[in-house]
Amino acid sequence: MEEKTKKVIIGMSGGVDSAVAAYLLKKQGYQVVGLFMRNWDSMANNDILGNEKINQEICPQEQDYLDAKEAAKLIGIKLERVDFIQEYWNDVFENFLHEYKNGRTPNPDILCNKYIKFDRMLNYALNQLKGDYLATGHYAKIKNNKLYKADDLEKDQSYFLAQLNKKQLENVLFPLAQYNKKDIRKIANEINLKIANKKDSTGICFIGERNFAKFLQNYIPTQPGNIIDIDNGKVIAKHNGIMYYTIGQRKGLNLGGMKEPYFLAAKNVEKKELFVTSIKNEKKFLSSNKLFATDLNLNTLEFDLNNLSAKFRYRQNDVKIFNVLIDQLNNTIFVEYQDQIAITPGQQIVLYQNDLCIGGATISKIYYNNKEIKLLNYEIEEK
Question: Hey, how many other C-beta atoms are within 10 angstroms of the C-beta on 43?
C-alpha cells in the first residue's frame, strides 16, 4: 500500500487546528476519517459550581461536536464519535484531584495526551477504525519516530507531548509541524471553514474554562486556614483551601492594605497554612538550582547527557541543565541549573537536546545549594 493511500484517523476537536490538519491530510492523498472524543459530562460529573455555561441550550462541548461535524462535511470526510468519559475520570481527573489535595500543581494537558489522546484514542483509531495512523492538530514534529519541536516555536506543543513513549510515536502524524497559526487561519478562510476565526480552547483539558476555585469545590470541600506573613509569623488573613492557590501566585490572594505586592511563597498542607511575603523576597524564598523528578519518561535514548536543556513550564525559554543523573530503574532524575524562580512540585520538567524532545518527568523536590526548599510542608523556624 502506498504511503499516501493509507488510512489516517484525525482527532477533530471542533477547533480550527484539527480541521485544517484534516484538510491537509486529505489534500496529501491520505484516506481520512475524523474522530471526535467526548471525555467530560458536566451533569454526570457534578460539574455545577464554577460552570456558568451549564444552563445553556447547547453546552460548549456539544457545540464543538457540531463544529467538527460541519468542518468534516465541508472537507468531505466522515466523522466518527466516541466517549471516554469514565476513562478520563479514572486516568486523568482523579490524579488531578489527588495532586491538588496534596498542595501540588498538576498539568492535566500532559496526562490527557499520555492516557487519553495517545492511548485510548490511538488504540481506538488503530483497532476499531482500522487506521494506519492517528493524526492530531498539535504543533510538533515527528522524525524517525522521535519527537521534535514544531517549526513555529511560539506555538510548539512538544512540552505537552513529552510523556509519550516511542511506541506511541510510531503511529502518529502531526500535519501542522511546519505551519504557524497565521497560516492555519489563512487556509481555513480560503476553504470557507466557519470556524476559521474561532478562538483557541482554554482552561482544563477537555473540560474548558471554569471559575477554578468554585470548580474544585465540586470535588474537594473547602478547608479554611490561615494566611501567614512569612517574615513575622503573623496571621494576616484567612483562606478557603490551600488547593485553590499556586506557589508564586500574586493575584487573587485578597490581601488588602499592603504597602507593596505580596506573593504566595509556601504552603503547609497538613496545617492548611499559606505563607506569603512581599515581592522583594521572591528570590529569597523561591530560588532553586537543582531538582528531583519522578515518573521519568524517555521516548529516546539517543541523546548526549552533557548537551541537554529543559523547560520547567510551557511558556519559557529552554534552560541549560547539567550534572544530570538519570535512574532508569526507578524512573527518576536529578538535574542542576542556574538559579530559577518558582519551579513548582507537580509541574513537568521537559528535556531537550536542541529541538529534539527526549522526554519529561514530574517535579517532586527542589533544592538551593543542595538544601531542600520546603514549599509544601513549610514551617517558620524558631528564632
Answer: 9
* Beta strands 78-83; 31-38: pairing state: parallel
CA 218/CA 233 separation, integer angstroms = 32
Percent of the chain with pLDDT over 70: 97
Q: Please give the Cα distance from 307 to 252 (Å, whole number).
A: 40
Residues identified as active-site: 112, 205
Entry pTM: 0.91
3-state class (DSSP) for residue 122 = helix
**Could you tell me what percent of the chain has a pLDDT over 90?**
71
C-alpha cell at 244: 485553590
The model's pLDDT over 266-283, given as tens digits with 9 standing for 90+, comes to: 999 999 999 999 989 989
Name all domains of the chain by residue range, CATH numbers in brackets. Answer: 3-190 (3.40.50.620), 220-283 (2.30.30.280), 285-372 (2.40.30.10)
The span from the CA of 284 to the CA of 265, in Å, is 10
Q: Which DSSP string corresponds to 217-275?
A: HTTS----EEEEETTT--EEEEES-GGG--TT--TT---TT-SS-EEEEEEETTTTEEE
